Amino acid sequence: MVNFNYETAFELSNESAYEKWISTIILSENKKEGELNYIFCDDDYLHNINVEYLNHDTLTDIISFDYTVGNELNGDVFISVERVRDNATDFNVPFSEELLRVMAHGILHYCGYKDKTEADADLMRKKEEEKIKLFHVEL
What we know:
The protein has one domain: 3-Layer(aba) Sandwich (Collagenase (Catalytic Domain)). Helices cover about 55% and strands about 20% of the residues. The protein has five helices and four strands. It has helices at about 15-30, 45-55, 80-90, 95-110, 120-139; strands at about 1-5, 30-40, 60-65, 70-80. A four-stranded mixed sheet has the order 1-2-4-3, sandwiched between helices. Strand 1, helix 1 (about 15-30) and strand 2 (about 30-40) form a beta-alpha-beta unit. The two termini are about 20 Å apart. The model has no long low-confidence stretch (mean pLDDT about 95).
C-alpha cells in the first residue's frame, strides 16, 4: 500500500498513476509491496529530520527510513519539494522528471541499491532512468 502525505503546499496531480508506477517498480525488482509512505515537505521540515535522526546538518532532497522485512518493502520516504525544484533547475530537467527520480531513488534503496561509491552511484542512476521510463509507459 502506497500512501501520500503532504506537509507543504504541494500535491501530486494524479496519485493513482504514481501509486501504480511505484507498484510496477517494486514488481520489476521482484519484491513485494508492503506499506510505503511518501511524505512531501519543505527544506526546513526535512532539515529538522536530517539533524534529529541522522545527525547531518545539511539540506537534502530525500531521506528514507527503511522498514523492509525480507522481500516486502516497507518504509517512509521524506521528500523536500523545494530541494527537488532547485535540483531540477540545477540539472536542467523538468521538475516532474526530477520528482520521479527522487521517488524511485527511495524505493531502489529499499531494493538494496546503494549510492556511496562511484560504481554504486552509477548503477543507481541507471536504475533510476530505467524506472522513470516505466512511469511514462504507465500513463
